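Aim 2, interim progress. The first record below pairs a target sequence with its structure tokens.
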Amino acid sequence: MRRSRPSGRHPGHAMGWRGLAAALVFALAASGPAAAQSLNLTGGGGDVPIEIFADDGIEWQQDNLVFLAKGNARAVRGGVTLLADQLTAFYAEKSDGTTDIYRLDADGKVRIKSANQTASAAKAVYDVTREILVLSGGTPKLVTSDTVITASEQLEYWEKRQMAVARGKAVAVRDDRRIKADVLAAFFKQARGGETKVYRVDAYDNVAVLTDQDRAFGGRGVYSVESGIATLTGSVRIERGKNELRGCKAEVNLNTGISKLFSCPGGRTEGVLQPRRDETN
């Protein structure tokens, strides 16, 4: 993340894409092992530098401490590629004469690709120090090897915590299973083959768990991918066809299709079951 302090002070300096690549390759190099399987382009360490290319060249705004790459901009580091209409790298000068890149912005048709994950949005911001990627604009989307997560407001990728947070009409889709909520938090782990997979999803406010047969609703939900069980709390409602059950807690097994409903303390569960009628009767 460091480079030598530039000599001289100028309001800005324009150079072709070859000059841009050379400047940012040196500026964004870091120490430690690179995290090739994640979407974290600038964090995670590694001596592998970032190479940046742009059709319309670059501006080096030395007074503003900014590098600006325009026109089909592309940043590549290890197994991660970032594509956007424009890339902006912000750096800070240190007292020892070095500089640190602390933020990288991507604007316009943003796409981020790694070995087994992709993300897209209209805008992306990397917080290099905290190793957090924030996607916003359009419909932010994160695609892993087994799950697709979307949001209407923003989607955050927290590298150190190995989690993604989707805000605003958030949806997580896995096979025929769909989890909706105002906010979703998905937690990842690496499988034996190196793939990054979701092992748990926490859902907050206006939660809905939907399959081809059942619909379950609640105020809070926790879905364990390995067990296939979604636990819902807070004014829970389970629907299948015209049948409906109500209670305070439910365990919905999405693998077996069996649901358990629990009553509120001192209360009871309620249900409306519609009998099947023979069409000739």
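The second target in this work package is listed in the same format:
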Amino acid sequence: MKNINRRKFLSLSALASAGAMVVPQMAFSAVNESRTQERSKTIPTRVLGKTGLEIPILSMGVMRADNPAVVRAALNAGLTHFDTAHGYQNGKNEEMLGAFFKGKDRSTFTIATKGKANLKSDNFEAEYEELLNTSLRRLQMDYVDVFYTHALDSVESVSNPRMLAMLKKFKAEGKIRHIGLSTHANKPEQIDAAIKTGLYEVILISYNFKLDILPELDAAIQRGADAGIGFVAMKTMVGGVEDATGGKKVDGAACLRWVWQNPNITTAIPGFTSFDLLDNCLAAAHSPELQPSDTQYLAGLQQNEMLYCQNCEKCVNQCTKHLPIPGIMRAYMYNYGYNYPSLSKATLVELSLTGNECSGCDECKVNCPSGFKIADKIAAITPIVNVCDDFLA
């Protein structure tokens, strides 16, 4: 097996019959780092709600980055906020950031990390504290500027007393400066629930031009902003590609300019992994006004299926097995849009999937409002749970 590389393995395995997995290209652009430095200009800043943190409208989502040179280029270009999570790259993402920022003036940058909570566990409090302590050890820091309780999906989880008590404890101990939550689903309801707690200071949400619930979401964001909550945008590039085939990368600059038209969005955290992608995002940040060409381009994508799942959850009740389809679709996007198969597998494993979810179903009954061919996508991604981690990146 030593002579078989990851791509060859995936193409030869039984997985190929369900849809070939995309292995990320690890080669970075030959663009010299100085090119990014030369383009360094003042990027507009906004204040992150009641935290008082003033940060550039463009930040770095570090999730997929494993090259500290890209982080250095981002910092040199004027980006000061960096977003990671406990689970990214099995902890190596936090370790990379910790090594990079070691010895640097802590007042010149801000770090956000995220941690998923198992509120069903009898040992939740001890487990969640150890999760945060582990993240701090990896980052080699005494505190993080923002800690998000990660990937919440319900009002009940936002308001859970055990969760709120632990977040208060973390802040009182000085391990986190500001309390946040991140979510992909039920966003207006969760924003309102967060407002009621009076505790959350920052909310990280998926936010892009394709969202079907934009009027309701924008209204909720306004209510949150009025209450002093700061908002950070993720999934701004709608899966990273223009259609479901994944053949052409989306124009990230146009997507970002659209996001920044909402003054209540403090910053966006696109996940660039190369100097070219960083340059594209910087071009938008240096000229953030939405252009007619951007509007025309985005309008042309409105009817495309693309890879971004709306997380409306209408599919779950239609499915005879009540599968967690939004989570599966997110895993599909991570692999076929982001070229990140290891995160795709991790997402499916967290959902306790086996790779054989649709067996016994003669015909899929799910009618996705976004036009996704649900059965095909499930068949093309769930087998990855049985692929050895050594063959995924």
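The radius of gyration is 20 Å. This observation will shape the mutagenesis plan for the next reporting period.
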